[in-house]
Amino acid sequence: MLPAYLPNPAAAFFGGGIPIDGGRRWSDGRRLLGDGKTWRGLICGVLSGVLLGLIQVSVQDAGILAWLPRLTVLSVVLLAVGALAGDMVKSFVKRRIGKERGAAWPIADQYDLVAGSLLLLLIGDFGFAAVHLTIPVVFWILLLTPLLHRAANLIGYATGVKDVPW
Ligand code: CTP
Ligand code: MG
To answer: What pLDDT does 118 receive?
Structure first.
């Protein structure tokens, strides 16, 4: 899951600049995605996740941690892209229900990346997903994600990368 977990903190660290929605508004008068979703965050986030995943692939190719599920280049790309795609879909819906950029939206804020990455993995590489997304694996992902999310956001807040601790 590391290629799915890294893109969000990397986007927060590297993000900023031109928003993906270009400032455009939906028919409800609110922003499509908002200023919290930028091209730089998206590109740097995806690249960070893919890079980490490629390191994992090469480490496993060298026979290290061979007992762990074998990542592939495709699965790494799907996980990283899916994580931030899920984040964007979350922001789109978040704007539609009237929540401002940066407002807390419990559950959705934590699980957007899980839903996005696992869904894209299922669509893009069903064979891989069918083998590796077992019930215990999904159970541990669902259990650990909010804890990791909380820890990452507290670190982000303490270091000034994030304006809010969620
Ligand atoms: N970020 C970015 N581009 C992205 C995703 C995130 O630049 N595609 C950066 C933004 O600076 C954002 C920060 O990472 O403020 C934290 O991300 P997140 O919590 O997902 O965004 P929010 O600001 O909370 O916006 P939203 O309410 O839309 O989730
Ligand atoms: Mg947020």
So the answer is: 98
